Amino acid sequence: MTVDMTTFLAQLGNRSDQATGAVSAPIYLSTTYAHPELGQSTGYDYTRTKNPTRELLESGLATLENGARGIVTSSGMSAIALIFELFPSGSEFLVSRDLYGGSYRFFEELQARQIAYFHYFNTLNELEEQISPTIAAVFLETPTNPLMTEIDVSAVAEIAHQVNALLIVDNTFLTPLRQKPLELGADLVLHSGTKFLTGHNDILAGVIIAKEVSLGERLTYLANTTGPTLSSFDCWLFIRSLKTLPLRFERQEQNAKEIAAFLKHQPAIKDVLYPGVGGMISLRLKEAVKVRSFLKELSIFTFAESLGGVESLITYPTTQTHADIPKEVRESYGLTPDLLRLSIGIENSQDLIADLTQALSHI
């Protein structure tokens, strides 16, 4: 029987314990598992390799993204690091210029150690100009962080596959509820599971979904080898969080649409960057010097890093999430000191608008 994704997620993990009929999936905390006898296994030997709770989560996430194999890790960055273990030393990559500062920092570290080399593009034309048989993969975010630029995944996939390069898409901002990169031609999709997927600012996790079984099996082998394992308790919390993902995301998105519409008419705001979908908004104040006082006046929005939780957050990328990108680089593509990023929560939208209104009135 085929069911809607909302139903699938609400039921995730249910009926997995046939022995007791437990509705909530059990947490298997054991790190090791007994062998029935020499040469036999229950399918579980050591929890880094395989864990029943983690298996439920990974299977559910693969279904959610319509992929062949899911792997969960201890953080979004560990998921990115695991993906780059796929490639031989000295590989070259093309990367969307506007991206999370932590990803940029990691790429710069790999390049400084001559492990990998990175070239950046802003547009599809720039991508086409730089694509060549030496490129092992294209890595992109869409919408980008924090400028909210949408990139045509299908078009990028076509360009990448002309030279047999893989396409890796960070789908953290839109989640599989609004975008399924694997269906659009991507080979790998990743998430900071810390964000919308778990959605409560209390779980650190990463997610990788592979389109093809062979690629998923290789990542599974590498995950067992290098050990970026997500604990079974965090896997259980992740499963519990996914059950409410559609409800949370729909409320966040509706709130974001209302707030974006409100912000566009505020005289103190120069630009509102919102792609019309999802729960993330960026804005530019007319005067960058007003950022400090604006942040100080907010009472419902919390000035903090991260995003995707039920609580609304506001971030200043220049000194927080993107501080590791050199000033001249970030400002060259529009990440200027007047820019703020809003992660919209599930609060009452009018309360959020009132908070923004009173903060803007003081600057």
TrEMBL record:
The modification N6-(pyridoxal phosphate)lysine is found at residue 195. One of its GO terms (cellular component) is cytoplasm. It comes from Enterococcus gallinarum. This is homocysteine desulfhydrase. The keyword Transferase applies. Keywords: Pyridoxal phosphate, Transferase. GO terms for molecular function: homocysteine desulfhydrase activity; methionine gamma-lyase activity; pyridoxal phosphate binding; transferase activity. The keyword Transit peptide does not apply. Pfam families: Cys_Met_Meta_PP.
